[in-house]
Amino acid sequence: MKFEDLKDDDAVVVCTTTDQPTIKDVTVRQCSFCGRDVWLADTTRKMLPKKYYLACMHCAGSNMQKEEIKLPSDEQLKDVADHLGIPFEQVKARIHSMLKNRNEFVKLKNRAEKYESN
Length: 118
Prior knowledge:
Elements: E1 12-15, E2 26-30, E3 37-41, H1 42-45, E4 53-56, H2 57-63, H3 74-84, H4 88-117
Parallel strand pairs: 1-4
Antiparallel strand pairs: 2-3
């Protein structure tokens, strides 16, 4: 699979590779783009549509620079908070802030590129 072959409505889930620490209740799957082993959390798996693709951090980082990233669910954030030993509200506020800033940057960058091409 190649990122260029994705349709606009295809779901892509960004996952951590298995050489990184993980939360509890995960399964090992493979990145749909490079085949690396990745962790897929049960809380994420429960939210997935029937058709989806998994992207390791490496593939996502180099290929998803123009896409907005959906905010994680509270259940996903609770997993992270439990794993890190940090209060849920702190984790939620920090991740929401980081993704909001990233997504705003992506929107502006996409608008600028669209403007420049016209």
